[in-house]
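Page 37, continued from 36.
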């Protein structure tokens, strides 16, 4: 997913210079076509350096992975780790490569981002390449139409109580392959999902928040006793006989139609966000405890296959874990937007 995206993003750069993108700019009106320039070297700049050059300051950002900077006159720009998007005073702009988290709470960005911002704020003098080269970024649709990042939704899950179950843990590593343990991935994704769901207004219960092993019955009991509306069990797959199998799937109890819809929404969101293979929502034929003993709409999501080296290594990165968590949140938002809370009889 990431590799293919990078290829798509870098190809025009390597082949012909920065891609020219002409769209309506909600703030400035249409911008003209810019001749392509040859710049085979993708350059970067640290956010800390950018702030210093501009004479702006770093300010507190809403959301764990966001970084905001502000000018003395109150203009604010926010970047997100692992995303190729920024907001300038709430307008969205896309740039050429993902922002990469760096030690010291810093961020590495394409230099073109700095050039764009410098020119926009009348500081062309700060731009290294003066003659001919021009980087215009891709303005996205106005905020009213654009799908906002999940952390900005605020109330999308208000009124919903969700139990998040990070599969395995402690003495039970779950699947292990390619140097990756299932229990670590499920915990990392679940903790991120917890933050996102809480930011979206949900009440969240976690079956575990560290490397411990609550047994399956106690996980179900927690969700039942807290009268959760939804239960999501996060797992990763292993294909015992083939390292070629990849993709995401989610299991549901066949007696619960809402669980099938939740599972479908979660898989759809993951496929859409990450581009992994779609193995669909599937009937549980194994009588999985967390799907039979929970009294609410429940889904067991398999994010991907650790037995496939590429998928295992991706799932082991903070970036993909964050993306998975966001996708699960998206799936939850999609599901809850259409559903009433229902007590499920199984
Ligand atoms: Zn598992």
């Amino acid at each position: 997913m990431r590799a293919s995206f990078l290829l798509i993003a870098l190809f025009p750069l390597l082949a012909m210079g920065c891609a020219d993108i002409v769209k309506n700019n909600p703030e400035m009106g249409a911008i003209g076509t810019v001749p392509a320039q040859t710049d085979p070297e993708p350059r970067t700049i640290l956010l800390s350096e950018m702030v210093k050059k501009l004479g702006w300051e770093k300010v507190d950002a809403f959301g764990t992975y966001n970084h905001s900077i502000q000018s003395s006159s109150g203009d604010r720009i926010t970047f997100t780790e692992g995303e190729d998007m920024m907001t300038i005073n709430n307008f969205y702009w896309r740039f050429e490569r993902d922002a990469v988290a760096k030690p010291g709470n810093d961020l590495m960005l394409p230099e073109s981002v700095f050039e764009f911002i410098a020119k926009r704020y009348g500081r062309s003098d700060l731009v290294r390449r003066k003659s001919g080269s021009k980087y215009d970024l891709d303005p996205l649709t106005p905020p009213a139409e654009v799908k906002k990042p999940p952390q900005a939704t605020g109330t999308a899950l208000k009124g919903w109580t969700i139990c998040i179950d990070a599969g395995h843990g402690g003495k039970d590593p779950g699947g292990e392959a390619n140097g990756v343990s299932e229990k670590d991935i499920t915990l990392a994704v679940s903790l991120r999902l917890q933050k996102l769901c809480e930011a979206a207004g949900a009440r969240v219960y976690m079956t575990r928040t560290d490397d411990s092993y609550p047994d399956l019955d106690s996980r179900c009991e927690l969700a039942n006793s807290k009268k959760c509306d939804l239960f999501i069990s996060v797992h990763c797959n292993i294909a015992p006989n083939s390292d070629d199998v990849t993709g995401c799937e989610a299991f549901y109890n066949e007696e619960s139609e809402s669980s099938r819809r939740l599972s479908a929404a979660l898989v759809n969101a993951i496929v859409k966000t990450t581009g992994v293979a779609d193995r669909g929502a599937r009937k549980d034929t194994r009588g999985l405890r967390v799907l039979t003993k929970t009294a609410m709409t429940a889904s067991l999501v398999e994010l991907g296959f650790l037995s496939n080296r590429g998928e295992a290594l991706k799932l082991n990165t903070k970036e993909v874990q964050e993306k998975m968590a966001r996708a699960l949140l998206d799936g939850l938002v999609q599901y809850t937007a259409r559903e009433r809370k229902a007590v499920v009889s199984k």
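The chain has nine helices and 19 strands. Flag for discussion at group meeting. The radius of gyration is 22 Å.
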